Each structure stands twice: as structure tokens, then as C-alpha cells.
Amino acid sequence: MTSPHQDLLTSVARGDQDAFARLYDQTAARVHGLVVRVLRDPAQSEEVTQEVYLDVWRTAARFDPAAGTALAWLLTIAHRKAVDRVRHVEASRRRDTAAYDRGRNVAFDETAEAVEASLIGREVRDALGQLSGPQRQCLELAYFGGHTHAEISQLLRIPLGTAKTRIRDGLLRLRTVMSAGPTGGLGLV
């Protein structure tokens, strides 16, 4: 004795659209429920459920009643397609993550950075040594001491304009000295 689903599936295999509609009406809730339990995403579950029924329409002739019931066959297709979607989504996520990781900046070499900073520091100290005492003193207070022009003026008991002039002239001299140095200049203003 055949089940109602099996009779419908046999008719679907012959291209009977009405039988397909009845099979869908009788089984869609269970098929969709299984897909939702696997995917846990309503939008993707709807897509996969559609794919299941498209597959049923195309492959109904492959159904073998000796292998199991028509409903079991439908649910097997649904489960397989849902698992395939999970795998596809996971593989896509891994590809995106790998692409992101490849695009990220590679960690810098701390040793090379420390050596470069040391060399630049030495070059700056050498260049500072070529400035006049007042220019060097004002630059050191401004850039190493973090003082403002007004604070330098007060600390050195010089007019504000003089402090600004010494800093500006010192920077210009540093630029000249540094551009002729081993690193080809540091972009000092």
C-alpha cells in the first residue's frame, strides 16, 4: 500500500503540477520547520525551502519507495540542503576573515623601529649641537620640555617675540643641517 505523499510524488515525477501543489501544501510546514532548526535564520530558511521544492520538482523520478517514505525523502533533501547552506555560509565567513587578515597591516618590527628612532635621535642631537646656545635652549624647552612660547619667555626672562624668533630660527637651521645629514632630512619645519 502506498502513502498519499508517495502517490503525489509519483504524479510529480510525471510533471503533474496540481500534485506538486498538493504535496507542497501537505509537507511545506514540516520541511520549512526542519530547515529553520538547522539554519536559525528565517530569510535563509525560506530560500533553502524553495530550493528543496525546486529539487523535488526536478528529481521526483529518483524517489525509491523501497528506500523509505516520501516524507522521509523530502526531509532528507531538506536537511542536506540546509547543512550545505550552513557550510557555504561558514566557508564564506572564513574566506572573508582570511581576506581581512591578509589586508591588515603586518605588525611592525619593534627592533628595527627602536634602531631607527635611536639613529634619528642621534642625528637630532648632533644637529642641535650645531645651533647657537639660545636657539638650542629654546627648542629643547619647547619640544623636549613641552613648554609654550609664553612659558619659555617667562623661564628665560626674554621677550615673547625673542623666544618665538629663536625657536623659528633654530628650526630653520635644524632643517638645513638635517637635510644634509645621513637620513636625508626628517621633514622638520
Task: Outline the structure in words.
It is a single chain. The protein has 189 residues and is mainly α. It folds into 2 domains: 4-103, Rna Polymerase Sigma Factor, Chain: A, CATH 1.10.1740.10; 110-179, Arc Repressor Mutant, subunit A (Orthogonal Bundle). Helix content is 76%, strand content 0%. It is built from 8 helices and no strands. Helix 1 packs across helix 2, helix 3 crosses helix 4 and helix 5 (110-128) crosses helix 8. The longest helix has 34 residues, at 70-103. Residues 185-189 have low confidence and may be disordered.
Radius of gyration: 39 Å
Number of domains: 2
Please state the structural category: mainly alpha
If helices are DSSP runs of H or I spanning 4 or more residues, what is the number of helices?
8
In whole angstroms, the N-to-C terminal distance is 94 Å
Key words describing this protein structure:
rod-shaped; disordered C terminus; 2 domains; Arc Repressor Mutant, subunit A; mainly alpha; Rna Polymerase Sigma Factor, Chain: A; single chain; 189 residues
Briefly, what is this?
The chain has helices at residues 4-13, 17-39, 42-59, 70-103, 110-128, 133-144, 149-156, 160-179. It is an all-alpha fold.
